[in-house]
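Q: Convert this sequence to structure tokens.
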Amino acid sequence: MTDWRLGVIGGSGLYDIDALEDRRWTRIASPWGDASDEILTGSLHGVPLAFLPRHGRGHVLPPSAINARANIDVLKRAGCTDILSVSAVGSLREDLPPGAFALADQYIDRTRSRPSSFFGAGLTAHVSMADPVCPRLSALVHDAGERTGVEIAKTATYLAMEGPQFSTRAESRLYRSWGCDVIGMTAMPEARLAREAELPYAALCMVTDYDCWREDDADVDIASILAVMRDNVARARRIIVEFVEALRDTPRTPSPIDTCLDTAIITDPSKWDRDLVQKLDAICARRFANA
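A:
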């Protein structure tokens, strides 16, 4: 019996895994509103999995409409111990061509209209985001890629933009000058919220295009992106299967992320907002039990 219970957030095509047993779609209510979709639960190589379509089945939600707080909350309520995010990105590096894979390890957040925290007035918390992903999860994903013959860049700085439009050329060149490697619309505030929920998080990025910084390339268009994405998704499924098989044989050791709220909440308990405490019943269940 494994101690891992993996949550996977990504596109619907990721879940077409023949070996997934005991499949069941379940809707989990959240005090933070509606999640993107129901959760597909099942077991793969004996490891419990919970899949959540980030944009909803059929891709009905644009990036700005994704309720990331509800998504992370329902995965926490589903008992997930760790999260693997899989998302499509544009490349800001010559050596990350369409079809390549990379593991994000840093973020620059340029989103502007998305709630980015579970906490607020009446219950203040400050989690560390210096290292926003879990190195052990990322290493296991990288190793799974090697075993399936998929090369994965070990590190990448992810520029999170608001969207839904793609970048201007000036923006794309600016982000390159900042040292960004890939650009996408969904990783923030998802990674921030996973940290607040004490859920170790890894981010597998599938490169679908060069962003618009290359002088001689055609503009980014959705048709070419979707064509590359279909091939990427098939390889991502193989990586997930191999990754989960490794989890089955790897004991889940404690992570510092598991207890990051111990020192993050600074509001005096006598001043806690009781309504907010109630909404945080899943996110802070461990922390409140020890208060």
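The radius of gyration is 19 Å.
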